[in-house]
Structure formats: structure tokens, C-alpha cells
Specification:
With 111 residues, the chain is mainly α. It is built from five helices and no strands. The chain has helices spanning 8-43, 48-81, 85-88, 97-101, 103-110. It is flat and about 60 Å long.
Length: 111
């Protein structure tokens, strides 16, 4: 594949560059919008550092809520399919596969 002018690779590369430039322009615009909102809050007498901290807390709470929801879904799936939870959650407790399989597997290995 050559990268000369008027080739398909050059067109694809140019398209990627244009998309990246457009996204960077949007990011800059959003940063300006955020600065405007912070300026408005500051002019109204609010502590912008405290507002930024509250936003961070809210975003982390949403992330934790999503993780909890996914764990609940996993538990419900394991229950509905009859999958033991130790298999559904993997080797999180540091157990070996033989220990997870139960006493019968341990006896078979020894004997």
C-alpha cells in the first residue's frame, strides 16, 4: 500500500485527520463552555472548587451505581442459570480450581 497523493490510503488518512481536528475543536469549545459556567457560578458567589469537587463525587457515585447494577445482574444470571457463584465470580478469593470444584476433586487428585 503506497501513501502517495491521490491514493485510497491518503484519502483515509486525510479523513481521519479531519475527524480528529473536528473533535479537538469540539473539545476546545466544550472547555470554553465549562469555563463560562464556572465564571457564572463564581460571579453568583459560589465556590467553584467546591462545585468541581461535588461534580467529581457525583460522577464517582454514578460509576459505583453502575458497578453495583452489573454485579446484581451477574448474581441474578448465576441464580437463573444455576451457575454456582464461585464460578460466576471467577477466582477472586484466590482459590484453586480444585478447591472451587469441591471435596470430590481434591479426593480424586490425592488418590
Amino acid at each position: 500500500m503506497s501513501l502517495g497523493q491521490n491514493t485510497a490510503a491518503a484519502e483515509v488518512l486525510t479523513a481521519y485527520l479531519a475527524r480528529m481536528e473536528h473533535l479537538l475543536d469540539e473539545i476546545e469549545g466544550l472547555k470554553d463552555d465549562l469555563k463560562d459556567v464556572q465564571s457564572e457560578a463564581r460571579n453568583e458567589g459560589y465556590n467553584v472548587a467546591a462545585l468541581n469537587r461535588l461534580v467529581a463525587i457525583r460522577r464517582n457515585k454514578r460509576r459505583a451505581d453502575r458497578e453495583t447494577e452489573m454485579l446484581n445482574d451477574l448474581i441474578l444470571y448465576a441464580h437463573a442459570t444455576g451457575t454456582p457463584l464461585d464460578l460466576a465470580f471467577g477466582d477472586a478469593g484466590g482459590e484453586t480450581e480444585a478447591a472451587a470444584a469441591g471435596p470430590a476433586a481434591e479426593t480424586a487428585e490425592q488418590g
